[in-house]
Amino acid sequence: MPASAIRHCTACGAPVVYRVPAGDTRPRAVCPHCGHIQYENPRNIVGTIPVWEQQVLLCRRAIEPRYGLWTLPAGFMELDESTEGGALRETREEAGADVRLDGLYAVINVLPAHQVYLFYRGQLTSPRWHPGEESLEVRLFHEAEIPWDELAFRSVAQTLKRYFADLRTGHFPVHTFDIS
User: Fold this and answer.
1) Residue of 42, 50, 45, 18 lying closest to 32 (CA atoms)
2) Predicted pLDDT of residue 163
3) Which of 69, 128, 130, 152 could be stapled to 96 by a disulfide with Cβ–Cβ 3.0 to 4.6 Å?
């Protein structure tokens, strides 16, 4: 049974059992009462690397987990939303900033959290930003000023390290990596 185990059927409310359904290869939450199979899938996190004059805009978190630590503006993708649309929305909500996307930059599989991060490079469209409800503070950082020991997530730290290395070369490939 997975650590994030489903306990009850979303169709009828009966307790579920974990077993491998016919034609499948993994244990799934199966309702012995109605036969409904519930699938557990990774959650998508979308965000941006907002840049203004070679500085990156970071947000100090006003929510748990990792209250008070710094992060890139990002959050859970919503239904009926593209990854690009979600990244733009999260940047507006958390950093009060508008960006022009420059393409997908990083795909990070955070295996222990069952999450997939998609970060887009983005140019701030103006030098205006403000903290949203989920941010205590929002500010620009040159690479040497990044509070590396105060970053909220390894995914953010690894993305920023790759970004600044790529900034020095002027080449921005799409990075894909795992955090386990």
Assistant:
1) 18
2) 98
3) 130
